Amino acid sequence: MIPETRLSNEQHQKLAGIVYKETGIVLNEKKYSLLVARLSKRMRIKAISSVSDYMNLMANDPEEFNEFIDATTTNHTFFFRENKHCEYIIATLEKTKPLKIWSAASSSGEEAYSIAVQLLANAFSFSIFASDVSDSMLNLGRRAIYPGDRVREVPPSLLRAYFQKGEDRWKDHVKVKPAVQKLVTFSKFNLLSDKPSDTFDIIFCRNVMIYFDTPTRQRVVSSLCRALKPGGYFFVGLAESLNGLDHSLTTVLPSGYQKN
Ligand SMILES: C[S@@+](CC[C@H](N)C(=O)[O-])C[C@H]1O[C@@H](n2cnc3c(N)ncnc32)[C@H](O)[C@@H]1O
């Protein structure tokens, strides 16, 4: 039996401090079990049973450091999640003007592809930049193959038009069609430390700021607002809001904002 991983207070502080500094994700005492679970997974993969040995490895191996950070991210997502925001865009925006859209914590790409299929079906002209801090999630987005349960909320007509059904060992999977894939570009971007080098008509930054504390949220929102064109739209997750943060956006719908 594999012994349960336990962290000393000092080890917890050190590891949580590394994650906070790298990503802004808060792994405080309440998140102890989550941190242990993610750490244990890496230790199993590297066949290391001592936490201090693993921490030494991390300190000397940038690749493993990156794998550890990647493992501490929470990537849950699915197609058509919180779709009211996309419906609002379709109902409100002009189809004649090409849109530059950013899915700023895209995880494995479901958010970006959900927006893409709906805008395509409604004859918009657009491009989507999808970014995340997790390399493994970005690779899944580029691969564009998803288990069937992720597309449960996609209307059947859109599923038929924009997804290919898998066969044989992929029979419970779907693949996003190339015509949709080519409208979405995946790239690594750390919301905490990278500076946007472009401006956008619409930015989605949903279900990531719940993992941040208020100073980090403020930093991320200020940075993303600078990357938003005047009149542009900014969406956060429905369980999130910009309450208590300093910004000059106007609320247009729940968790949806516009730059003046
Ligand atoms: C729960 S997923 C949200 C996915 C999608 N936006 C949605 O609403 O379904 C949160 C994502 O935020 C990413 N993330 C966490 N910290 C980040 C950071 N500092 N910079 C960029 N992405 C980050 C995680 O890797 C994860 O994939």
Tag the structure with descriptive keywords:
alpha/beta, single chain, Rossmann fold, 10 helices, globular, seven-stranded mixed sheet, Chemotaxis Receptor Methyltransferase Cher, domain 1, binds S-adenosylmethionine, 260 residues, 2 domains, 40% helix
Present the secondary structure layout.
Elements: H1 9-23, H2 32-45, H3 51-60, H4 62-71, H5 84-92, E1 99-103, H6 110-121, E2 126-132, H7 135-143, E3 145-147, H8 156-162, E4 163-165, E5 173-176, H9 178-181, E6 184-188, E7 200-205, H10 214-226, E8 228-236, E9 249-253, E10 256-259
Précis, in short:
This protein has 260 residues and is an alpha/beta fold. The protein is built from 10 helices and 10 strands.
